Amino acid sequence: MIFNSFNFIIIFPVLFLLYYAIPMRYGKIRNFYLLLVSYLLYLQWKPIYAIILLFVTAATYFAALTVAKSKHPKRTLTIGVLIALLPLLFFKYFNFINESLGDALEALGLHFRLAGLNWPIPIGISFYTFQALSYLWDVYYKRQEVEHDFLVYALYVSFFPCILCGPINKASKMIPQFKSRRLYFDYTKAVVGLKLLLWGMFMKVVVADRLDIYVDPVFSKYMNFTGLTCMVATLLYSIQIYSDFAGYSLMAIGIGKILGFDFMTNFNRPYFAVSVTDFWHRWHISLSTWLKDYIYIPLGGSRCSKLRNYWNIFVTFLVSGIWHGANWTYIVWGCMHGICQIIEKMLGQQKCHYGWLGRMVKTIITFVVINMAWVFFRMPSLSDAWGVLSRIFDPSLPMRVFLPDKGQLLFISLGVTMLFLKEFIDEFYPQRMKLFDHRNRIVRWLSYVTVFILIMLAGVFSADQFIYVSF
Predict the structure, then answer these.
(1) DSSP-assigned letter for residue 282
(2) Which candidate in 148, 281, 324, 353 is catalytic?
(3) Using CA atoms, how far apart are residues 77 and 83, in angstroms rounded to an integer?
(4) Which tens digit of pLDDT belongs to each residue from 353-384?
């Protein structure tokens, strides 16, 4: 169920009260309740999805048990990983592989193509598959004790706040929390969670969904718009995808805290990064950590020759592109990020050593690079991505920009300005202006009420899916 829907706003308080109505000493019943809720909420999408989720959970659970006692753990690990990846490969990548091979064969004069699949991709399959695989690999590397309680492990894989779009949590962080004796209610943690939930909702419905009203029509019919309009749309899409995904992450983390759990931080003001390398230390942190731990380091990381290190970086971000979607646009997007990081490493430009002016220049350059890469991420094909970029850099087009009506323009400007000011203050003056955490109670509550009113007035409550749900 989408967090920005009225159904969830109505249902969650009931789920919350029922959860805390279960006595603290009945920890297993509490876990069973959370598992039941997670599956019931997931079943609302399509019942068949729950079977796939259960398959991945069972496959990695029994594979980890076998790896822990096997004389040939590597062989068992390989089999377990392949079995767990089968649904992901089948539902998400079958059509892409089939079409790519068919096109390659046709280029050679051969005509062979299997029938494609018309089944939708199961919601959140990339996220929960990677989370389950991280547990299996951690057991293999002896970084995680094998979990014998299937209920606890199933809850770890399917916990409803983060099953759709992450964060991709490690078993070492979550399983001990599920097994511990949790308090009836942690007031301090719940207050923090409500603040995150409130601001995450603002980012989603006031900023991201409002920007989509402008961005989607421009990208859908970009040939009808000027290059300047396309450029504005790309800038706004960068803000939209950040507000959408980071907003979801804040809501997921906030809901977890209200229930007494701590999830991994997923974003840290990525558009203030001074390099693409720094960007990936701030953007989708749970995925970048996963890629580092299970792709980059096993390939050799940086403890190898320079050429091999560059190759490891490239492969890691190639995997990142493939993970995001079965399309050449995502692969190009991932490769662009990998190549940029290789160039930065060759030039020693991963960090900033040039003072505040140098930081500002590097931040702007990084944002422009990231912004251009988002075009490939957003467009449905490489030809469309090149089409948008060609219009942006076409000097023959008139310097005219499409503007929405005054009401839309006001709400968009208000939302983006508030987001920028908060991000700027949190990045450079974190101790000076904390409205949500101000010592004065009146200032705190005024900030809560103001954001809430803006959500009600300027929010787009169409219950649209979060962008990353499709990945």
Answers:
(1) T
(2) 324
(3) 10
(4) 778 898 999 999 999 999 999 999 999 999 99
Cα-trace Rg, the chain = 23
Distances (CA, A) of 316 to 186, 329, 335: 39, 16, 9
Nearest to 235 by CA among 339, 360, 388, 383: 388
Residue 176 has pLDDT above 90, yes or no: yes
> Closest Cα partner for 190 from 325, 13, 410, 429?
13
Q: Which of 365, 364, 386, 362 is nearest to 375 (CA)?
A: 386
Report helix, strand or coil for 136: helix
Residue 183's pLDDT is 67
Known catalytic residue: 337? Answer: no
Q: Are 244 and 166 in contact (CB under 8 A)?
A: no
Task: Kindly report, residue by residue over 251-297, the tens digit of the pLDDT.
Answer: 999 999 999 999 999 999 999 999 999 999 999 999 999 999 999 99
DSSP class of residue 295?
Answer: I
What global pTM score does this model have?
Answer: 0.93
Kindly report the CA angle at 177 between 173 and 182, in degrees rounded to 5? Answer: 155
